[in-house]
Design brief:
Blueprint (H helix, E strand, L loop, with lengths): L2 H6 L3 H7 L13 E2 L20 E2 L6 E2 L4 E2 L6 E6 L10 E3 L3 E5 L9 E6 L4 E5 L8 E3 L5 E6 L2 E3 L6 E8 L2 E9 L4 E3 L2 E3 L7 E2 L10 E7 L5 E5 L3 E7 L26 H14 L9 H17 L11 H17 L3 H20 L17 H9 L1 H7 L2 H11 L2 H6 L7 H17 L3 H22 L7 E2 L2 E2 L1 H20 L6 H16 L22 H10 L10 H10 L20 E5 L4 E6 L2 E6 L25 E5 L28 E3 L3 H4 L15 E5 L4 E9 L2 H8 L12 E10 L2 E10 L6 E10 L6 E4 L2 E4 L5 E5 L3 E4 L5 E4 L5 E11 L6 E15 L4 E8 L4 H9 L3 E6 L3 E6 L4 E6 L12 E4 L3 E7 L3 E7 L11 E8 L3 E2 L7 E5 L2 E8 L5 E6 L6 H17 L13 H25 L1
Antiparallel strand pairs: 1-5, 2-5, 3-5, 4-10, 6-9, 7-8, 8-19, 9-18, 10-11, 11-16, 11-20, 12-15, 12-19, 13-14, 13-18, 14-17, 21-22, 23-24, 24-25, 25-26, 27-32, 28-29, 29-30, 30-31, 31-40, 32-39, 33-34, 33-36, 35-38, 36-37, 37-40, 38-39, 41-42, 42-43, 43-45, 44-47, 45-46, 46-51, 47-50, 48-51, ...
Helix pairs in contact: 4-6, 5-6, 5-7, 7-11, 11-12, 11-13, 12-14, 13-14, 13-15, 14-15, 15-16
Keywords: Lyase, Membrane, Transmembrane, Transmembrane helix
Family: Belongs to the polysaccharide lyase 8 family.
GO molecular function: carbohydrate binding; carbon-oxygen lyase activity, acting on polysaccharides
């Protein structure tokens, strides 16, 4: 099954279950709230059942909205649903022209309001008070108070209709409807949010109670129809649209000056079309199709999917049309095919009359909502052409999907939804053109635009942005569809440029780094159940897309990783010559995502922060509601199952009693869950900090996080008895760093400060779910297993903890640690139910309102007994500095020193290689026998920057480059080396520098003489003298001489 079929060609039941598409009863007979909580769903798909004009909005019939009311706190009005079925309602009064009801053009029921008018005529609607027109509600708080005013104009002409929204006889706001479009149109104006209404007197907003419609500049007689009017109803802010002001026609493209496609070229396009639209199946008997056609006709009749009925749910109808189109494709019987085509035309013609046309009242259907309709029209290209309706259908699709802008324009924008929902549909629209030559040109142009879109949409480090941050949930869907489409084009001989495939590869290779069987939890956004899987299908698709550039074979590296992550395919004979890849090992950074990944064996450790550029995640009221801290310094260990670890398998269970304030590695305010709960809006916090990011030398790495969150304000307000009177606390701030060497992660924190919050601040070591297999925690050698009573320990001395999953945490004496093993109560990630779970949780307590608090601990990921014994016997690392200016750590086993320099004036250790820096930066220096490996960066991701900035450091010793192609500029002077490298987006730059060769005896004597002469000529203070090339060896030589003398003396003593 192709990706398109598996994702897009789904039943209406699937859509209702998974995408929020719902059908409604035929009639509403009860009162409807004008600011009701039953607002449109996520994409604000317009109500499938269009309620008749809402009238008599009585103040007594009010209902408090669940949404956030911006401005006043008034209630939204409720109204009685009126019908035009029995005539013109009493509160509609004509001051010119004639009001009546008609079944000629309807949106709901069997009648609509008809107004025959000429210039100067008018009518009024006494709605009664509209209530609160400042409501924000619904999914993500996307729906805001609006007037929805569908109307059908019978003929074009000069002039316009003026719609006045009034309070008594005073006009508050207006909008105009030019007489330029025949058919249904549906203006949607929001009252307060980004309102496009022309406000005459905004002070009347809370007094609105009637509408007046009048004709101006009209010549001759005309007719308008009105139906399904909502005078005050929350609608998605993206649904706003004004009246039609001019006719729309698709662009006309002249291909005559371009090279004509060959027969081979046309065959390639036909091959693509067949992938989207398979051949008929002659094995299906006529009897089956006769029953099917009869069933379709009955559904059309029973559901009113034909002329004379309103469109109740066009999204459901799209699924119905697509099912007919699928039948037509599969049917090989010519007569039955005609019957199926007739069923299709009956429904499609009716929907187009109801407004499924350019500028029509149904509006644009694209993104998630329009996919099935595009699929249906593409499949029915032939019958639509015969029916004379192909151009109308194609024009509508081009209008809905902004086809010409996407395919022939240069404005390519970053959007994962483009790949997931639009790219394949744009390809289908291109394939729908009737003329084969024109079709080829459109498909070829699509290929070019698609390739460019890939390049601009993916960050160089593999970042896939959606909603303003690296968002795996959306990005993985986008890359899955993009790689599938790229594979289709390659398979049919029309591959996108290799540069475009390499862009997808950047994203996919990053995914390989941050995925086990599942991806890191911190990247899941509002999909916080912890179950988002690795992108196996994407990897396979992309491997196949590379075939034209790899002698017709899939990319071997990608295929081997596909087999590693999708182990069930490893035994497939088709892949017998491919060996599954080993898990990546090393250290990997993504500046655009504020992410670092450290891997050894099959486990991975992810460090995720947020910054000016990288959001901390996404929360809605009903999705990841309490995930405030998920990307605020989480140190996430995926360790189990061992070969392909998962979030849940590694002890993080978001929907089983998880303490959302105890995110591992993060420094958090430990408060009741209500304090960190998101409201009704979309929460995607960023900070103003730019010194956030990682550094790698390929093998090891470090990460810096300038933590500064103002969400302390929300916490205090959420927990206050009177939120309006809640005091305003300071931000929670901290400097947090992680130094990653092999399986050792050294975690430092300093300058942890806050005031004005009456809850303790903690740095969380671990929070692990207890299972039968993973039930024991060790503290300084004592095994602790939960029984009937909770276990608590407060360790004030140096401590060694081993969590139930085998990771060790070592704290020094100056960092007291607390442990609790107990059952926890919480809420699930969607905040729909209470949850419980048994956990082992450890943390460092900083107390309430700490000032410049600090911490230090080391994590050993999956250590062996020997690892742990060796570590505790002799600590292998040394913290050289930990204050507001710098965090510096030396790791003895790797002979590497890591520097996080927050302030360029920081005093650096004088006995190390790094002497000074010209700016805040990250530096790692690994010393080898004959060279140094120096890696450095400025972690400021500068995502919009076009030119690199220099990062300059100064090293002790006169060093030379070991790489001819090095991007570094070196300048040696007075025993020091100034090193400058260009950094564009926070990427790590790795330089190898040769050590100076040891001096021979003659060279040493000369050096000493020269040095003595210089000192005699110009004596200087010791602190001012430049270091000579021998400086690094003098104390070593002196030490060796002392040892030698002692040995000789001892030997002489024995002889005596």
């Amino acid at each position: 099954m192709s990706a398109t079929n598996s994702i897009c060609e789904q039943s209406p039941e699937y859509l209702a279950k998974n995408l929020g598409y719902h059908s409604f009863p035929d009639k509403f007979t009860k009162q409807r709230s004008i600011g009701c909580i039953k607002s449109p769903n996520y994409f604000n798909l317009p109500h499938p059942m269009k309620i008749k004009t809402t009238l008599a909005l009585l103040p007594a019939l009010t209902l408090i909205c669940s949404g956030v009311a911006h401005g006043d706190e008034k209630k939204g009005a409720s109204g009685i649903v009126a019908s035009f079925e029995t005539g013109v309602p009493e509160n509609f009064a004509a001051q010119g022209g004639k009001l009546s009801v008609s079944g000629d053009h309807i949106l709901d029921g069997s009648k609509a309001l008809k107004w025959d008018f000429k210039n100067g005529d008018a009518f009024t609607v006494k709605t009664g008070p509209l209530g609160n027109v400042n409501v924000w509600t619904g999914y993500g708080n996307y729906s805001r108070s609006a007037v929805i005013f569908p109307l059908y104009l019978a003929q074009k002409g000069p002039g316009h209709l003026l719609v006045e929204i009034r309070a008594g006889e005073e006009t508050a706001a207006t909008f105009e409807v030019p007489l330029v479009h025949v058919g249904w149109q549906k203006p949607v104006f929001h009252y307060s949010w980004n309102s496009k209404l022309k406000w005459v007197n905004g002070k009347l907003k809370d007094k609105l109670d009637n509408f007046r419609i009048s004709a101006h500049g009209v010549t001759g007689e005309n007719t308008a129809y009105f139906d399904a009017i909502f005078f005050n109803d929350p609608r998605d802010f993206r649904d706003a649209r004004g009246p039609i002001t001019q006719s729309w026609e698709p662009a006309v493209h002249d291909f005559s000056k371009l090279p004509a496609p060959t027969a081979e070229d046309l065959a390639k396009v036909d091959a693509i079309f067949k992938i989207f639209n398979p051949d008929p199946n002659p094995n299906i008997k006529r009897e089956h199709w006769e029953k099917r056609v009869a069933s379709l006709k009955k559904s059309i009749q029973d559901q009113g999917l034909q002329h004379g009925n309103p469109v109740k749910n066009h999204y459901k109808n799209f699924g119905f049309l697509n099912s007919i189109a699928n039948d037509w494709l599969r049917c090989a019987d010519p007569e039955m095919r005609k019957e199926l085509a007739t069923c299709f035309h009956t429904v499609n013609d009716w929907m187009q009359e109801q407004g499924l046309v350019v500028n029509g009242s149904i509006g644009k259907v694209n993104n998630y909502g329009g996919r099935l309709y595009v699929d249906a029209i593409t499949k029915m290209r032939g019958p639509l052409k015969e029916h004379g309706n192909l151009k109308t259908s194609i024009d509508y699709l081009k209008w809905s999907y902004s086809y010409d802008d996407h395919i022939f324009g240069d404005n390519h924008h970053v959007s994962m939804d483009y790949f997931h929902n639009e790219a394949a549909r744009l390809m289908r629209i291109a394939l729908t053109h009737g003329d084969p030559v024109v079709r080829w040109h459109h498909v070829n142009q699509f290929r070019d635009a698609f390739g460019k879109q890939l390049i601009v949409s993916i960050e160089p480090d593999g970042g896939i942005f959606h909603h303003g941050f690296h968002y795996y949930a959306y990005g993985s869907m986008g890359m899955n569809d993009a790689s599938w489409l790229a594979a289709v084009l390659s398979r049919c001989g029309m591959p996108v440029p290799r540069k475009s495939l390499d862009s997808i590869r950047n994203a996919v290779e990053a995914m390989i780094w941050y995925s086990g069987r599942t991806t890191l939890w911190s990247l899941n956004g509002r999909n916080a159940a912890g179950t988002q899987g690795a992108p196996t299908g994407t990897i396979k698709n992309l491997a196949e897309a590379y075939a034209p550039y790899n002698d017709g074979k899939p990319d071997p590296y990608l295929m081997s990783n596909f087999l590693r992550l999708a182990g069930n395919h490893a035994k497939n004979p088709a892949y017998a010559d491919i060996t599954p890849a080993a898990s990546p090992n090393g250290n990997f950074t993504m500046p655009s995502a504020a992410l670092a990944v450290h891997r050894r064996d099959d486990w991975l450790a992810g460090i995720k922060a947020y910054s000016k550029y990288a959001g901390s995640g996404e929360s809605y009221a009903n999705a990841n509601r309490h995930g405030l801290y998920m990307s605020m310094g989480q140190l996430e260990l995926l360790t189990h199952p061992k070969e392909l670890p998962t979030v849940l398998g590694s002890g993080t269970r978001p929907d089983e009693g998880y303490d959302w304030t105890a995110i591992e590695g993060a420094t958090t305010i430990h408060c009741p869950i209500k304090g960190i709960a998101n409201g009704n809006g979309s929460r995607n916090p960023k900070s103003g900090e730019i010194f956030v990011g990682g550094l790698t030398n390929g093998h090891n790495g470090l990460f810096a996080f300038t933590f500064n969150t103002n969400f302390t304000h929300n916490i205090v307000r959420n927990l206050a008895a009177d939120p309006k009177q809640a005091p305003k606390p300071d931000n929670l701030t901290a400097l947090k760093t992680w130094f990653c060497f092999d399986n050792r992660i050294i975690c430092l924190g300093s300058n942890i400060s806050i005031s004005g919050v009456d809850y303790p601040v903690r740095t969380n070591l671990f929070q692990k779910f207890l299972t039968a297999e993973h039930s024991t925690t060790q503290l300084n050698g004592e095994s602790l297993t939960l029984a009937d009573q909770a276990i608590t320990r407060d360790e004030t001395q140096a401590a060694t903890l081993i969590d139930p999953y085998g990771n060790a945490y070592i704290t020094p004496a100056e960092t007291p640690v607390h442990l609790r093993i107990s059952e926890q109560k919480s809420r699930n990630n969607n905040d729909t139910k209470d949850t419980t779970g048994k956990y082992s949780t450890a943390w460092i307590e900083h107390g309430k309102n700490p000032k410049d608090a600090a911490y230090e601990y080391a994590v050993l990921v999956q250590p062996t007994d020997e690892d742990l014994k060796s570590f505790t016997a002799k600590q292998p690392y040394q913290v050289l500095k930990k204050d507001a200016t710098a965090h510096i750590v030396h790791d003895a086993p790797s002979n590497t020193t890591g520097y996080v320099i927050f302030q360029k004036e920081a005093e650096l250790p004088t006995d190390r290689t790094l002497k000074s820096v010209a700016q805040p930066c990250l530096v790692m220096i690994a010393e080898h026998a004959d060279h140094f490996t120096v890696s450095l960066t400025n972690p400021d991701a500068r995502l919009q920057a076009k030119e690199p900035q220099p990062v300059t450091i100064t090293l002790n010793g006169e060093l030379t480059s070991a790489d001819e192609s090095s991007p570094a500029t070196l300048e040696t002077k007075d025993g020091s080396t100034q090193l400058t490298v260009p950094v564009l987006h926070g990427e790590s730059v790795i330089i190898r520098l040769k050590k100076p060769k040891p001096l021979s005896n003659t060279e040493a004597e000369t050096e000493v003489k020269d040095s003595s002469a210089k000192e005699a000529a110009a004596p200087a203070k010791e602190s001012e003298r430049p270091a000579s090339p021998l400086a690094n060896y003098r104390w070593i030589i002196a030490g060796l001489l002392i040892v030698a003398i002692a040995i000789v003396a001892k030997l002489l003593g024995k002889r005596k």
